[in-house]
Amino acid sequence: MFAKVFLTRQLPSQVMELLKPQVDLSYNTEDRVLSKTEIIEGLRGKKGLLCLLTDTIDAEVMDAAPDLKIIANYAVGFNNIDLAAAKARGIWVSNTPGVLTEATAELTMSLLLTTARRIVEADQFTRSGLWGGWGPLQYLGKEVHGSTLGIIGLGRIGKAVVKRARAFGMAIIYWNRTRLEIAEEKELGIRYFSKEEVLRQSDFVSLHLAYTAETHHLIDSAALAMMPTGSFLINTARGKIVDEKALVKALQSGHLGGAGLDVYEEEPRIHPALFQFPNVVLLPHLGSATLKTRTAMGLLAVENLLAGLQGNVPPNAVG
Ligand code: DGY
């Protein structure tokens, strides 16, 4: 008899095809986020849960399924899951590291280039039909080549951004909780500084940290004030790392030159003031959004799910 599994939203077809013959699957057939009540209903009597970063999985949800063995999160971040509650109930939690590194680094560079060179503004202007021809002062941006990129949080994704930024001729500095070996710093062509110094010296600051109690509002008004006038903030990590209200103020005052955001404090709600700034690019959390990556994430999540259901340690167990 197959183990009963609940999936909170449909995944790419290759993943669905892999999953369906191996478990007794119930899933949300509508392409929308389920409410907590719906997740609880769906999870009743199940042994496995395959869920998304948009699903809050807390003790109350876990208690709907006393036989729950594994919560396989379809994301590298797992701040949506109460790890302590899972541990107390003997439930494995897993994530999908590694497979989304390149896609997320690509999107980071896309945001960096788009904000620096004012691509969205210029595209809107061109489409407006108002363009009267080439002009020496039109849409002057910030040259990326020769600029300094400060990376806060140098894990897999941060390193993949380094490789791309080097190809664009950027000087790269970083801060990470644990400093890399000197040999690796040399190989990557990066220099280590304190977080404050990275903020002070960077034309672009890009965030690549996990969201935890320690990184909550790491970028607050004091941190933003340290960034040079006209500098840019790029966030493809987690929204709550940035104090969105403080960010709005730094943009309103003209202190920041712009921001490229893929994530927000209260997704899908976005601070309304952010919509007003032409120098801010807003994306709907697309870091891993390529078919290749979303499929790879699903295949990895299924591998973790099946391991947990079989009583084995999931290859990407967390907590
Ligand atoms: C993750 O996996 O944590 C990403 O945010 C998904 O895009």
Describe the structure.
There is one protein chain. The chain is built from twelve helices and twelve strands. It has helices spanning 13-19, 36-43, 59-62, 83-88, 101-116, 119-128, 156-167, 182-188, 195-201, 221-226, 244-252, 291-309, and strands at residues 4-7, 24-27, 48-51, 70-73, 92-94, 148-152, 171-175, 190-192, 204-207, 231-235, 256-261, 280-282. The strands form two sheets. A seven-stranded parallel beta sheet has the order 8-7-6-9-10-11-12, with helices on both faces. The chain has a five-stranded parallel beta sheet with strand order 2-1-3-4-5. Helix 1 (13-19) runs parallel beside helix 12 (291-309) and helix 5 (101-116) crosses helix 7 (156-167). The model has no long low-confidence stretch (mean pLDDT 98). (2R)-2,3-dihydroxypropanoic acid binds next to loops.
Q: What would you say the CATH architecture of the largest domain is?
A: 3-Layer(aba) Sandwich
Count of DSSP H/I helices: 12
Task: Name the bound molecules.
Answer: (2R)-2,3-dihydroxypropanoic acid
CATH superfamily of the largest domain: NAD(P)-binding Rossmann-like Domain
- The number of domains is 2
CATH top-level class of the largest domain: Alpha Beta
Query: In one word, what is the shape?
Result: globular
Main sheet, how many strands, which sense, barrel?
A: 7 strands, parallel
- Radius of gyration (CA) equals 21 Å
The chain-level structural class is: alpha/beta
| Helix-strand sequence | EHEHEHEHEHHEHEHEHEHEHEEH
| Mean pLDDT across residues | 98
Strand order in the sheet with the most strands: 8-7-6-9-10-11-12
CATH level 3 topology of the largest domain: Rossmann fold
**Percentage of residues in helical conformation:** 25-40%
Strand residues, percent: 15-25%
- Stretches with pLDDT under 50, minimum 5 residues: none
Number of strands: 12
